[in-house]
Amino acid sequence: MLPDRPLDQSDLDPDPLVLFERWYSDAVVAGAVRPDAMALATVAADGAPSVRMVLFKGAGPDGFLFYTNYGSRKARDLQADPRAALVFHWPEMHRQIRVEGTTARVGETESANYFASRPRDAQVAAWASRQSDPLPDRETLERRFAELNEQFEGKDVPPPPFWGGFRLLPAAFEFWQGRQHRLHDRFRYGGGAGRWSIERLWP
User: Fold this and answer.
1) Model's pTM, two decimal places?
2) What residues act catalytically?
């Protein structure tokens, strides 16, 4: 069901991160399917755009966190051009949040601490996958996973040297709330941390 009242600027917070956390919590409480799923858009060295879904692993003043294989297409894109964009979409809430900014790698210790919290099979899978490279067949992947599972049997699985996190430091946010007759509410935050300005956009 669409919201029963428009979104007004008085409903917002001066700090977009505070509003993000409020909307994210609302999505979790409402039972949104995978509220932590976000689209990540990057651009390659030749200017070609690319987008995929990744899992959101937290946000704070230093940015929005996600993890990946550093050999993946997304990571190669970010190493060529650190600018990126995120989209959270919660259709159950008729809400969407866009975030634009610049990315940087997370430190090894923080990545290792998160890796240690992952299920063991996910840890082994991180070692097994040459993410984004051509794979001749499914059997090759399963065989590689089985071999590594045996190799690490009875041991802690260390983080791969080619795996870790990125943070996106926001330069702009947009909060979108659906309304009847396509008369949606859109508010954009610009200017960056500590100097945010807010403007309403046409839907």
Assistant:
1) 0.94
2) 182
